[in-house]
Amino acid sequence: MEKRKSRNFVIEAKEKENHFETEVGPGVYDIHSPRVPSVEEIVKALEIMLTKVDRDKLWGNPDCGLKTRGVAETDASLRNMVEAAKQVRSRNTGCVSK
């Protein structure tokens, strides 16, 4: 599930629907923008998601594929996403990916 532009509306709707009995992978940044998201921005998105989804069921993803982005911005964005995941895990607030 990738819907970064929805500002977690999909997460809230799915939470009410089935209490996340399955795993979920919401988008943590908008890949349609050429702007590289900061580590802090992605950490904030993940922490918000962890208020709605158990850490064992949350997988952070870029939003809906990367075909619209170039190699340099994709690489920088994914590096920031990995660093954000490490920071969130180290705070013992949740797990983003395995």
Sum up the overall morphology in one term: globular
Computed CA radius of gyration, to the nearest angstrom? 13 Å
Alpha-carbon distance between the two ends: 17 Å
Mean pLDDT: 77
Number of helices: 3
Largest sheet: none
Instruction: Please bin the fraction of helical residues.
Output: 40-55%
Low-pLDDT residue spans: 93-98
- Our count of domains comes out at 1
Based on secondary structure, the structural category is: mainly alpha
What's the helix-strand series?
A: HHH
Strand content of the residues, in percent? under 5%
Total beta strands: 0
Cofactor: Zn(2+)
Keywords: Metal-binding, Methyltransferase, Transferase, Zinc
GO molecular function: 5-methyltetrahydropteroyltriglutamate-homocysteine S-methyltransferase activity; zinc ion binding
GO biological process, one term: methionine biosynthetic process
List keywords for this structure.
mainly alpha; 3 helices; 98 residues; 5-methyltetrahydropteroyltriglutamate--homocysteine methyltransferase; disordered C terminus; 0% strand
